[in-house]
Amino acid sequence: MADVTQGAAELNDIAAKIQSGSADSALNGLDVGSLLGSMSMTNIVISVVAGLIGSGFFMYGKKRQNFRVLGFGVALCVVPYFISNTLLLLVACIAMTAAPFVMERYA
User: Fold this and answer.
1) pLDDT at 21 over 80
2) Which residues contact 67 (CB under 8 A, 6 or more apart)?
3) What mean pLDDT do residues 39-49 have?
4) Which residues are CB-neighbours of 17 under 8 A, at least 6 positions away?
5) Which DSSP string do the residues of the chain spell out, in sequence order?
6) Annotated domain spans of the chain
């Protein structure tokens, strides 16, 4: 029982060091903020939603052999990686989501 208590105390110490910023050098390499870069939570949510819609477009386009929808599906999955501006990302994703329907109507 003493081992479990000691292990819990060590975990609490490590958590306190991480929160204070004075962790060991091995723990400093584990910086989650650097993995996300400068992405805001809004950008992340827009990217995830665009990826889900893009995956749906991709599967539908592949099943129906509609290469236009398949292409827009791939674009919706890839483009959010390259756009960091939130407003521009939102406009681009909305445009790519609507494009297959607009092109179908006027083609």
Assistant:
1) no
2) 61
3) 91
4) 23, 24, 27
5) -HHHHHHHHHHHHHHHHHHHT---HHHHT--HHHHHTT--HHHHHHHHHHHHHHHHHHHHHHHHT-HHHHHHHHHHHHGGGT---HHHHHHHHHHHHHHHHHHHHH-
6) 1-30, 38-106
What whole-number distance in Å separates Cα of residue 97 and Cα of residue 102? 10
Q: How far apart are CA 23 and CA 29, in angstroms?
A: 10
The token pair at 38 is 């400068």
What's the pLDDT at 62?
96
Name the amino acid, one letter, at 82.
F
d(CA 97, CA 72): 7
The pLDDT value given to residue 16: 72
90: its two tokens = 């939102």
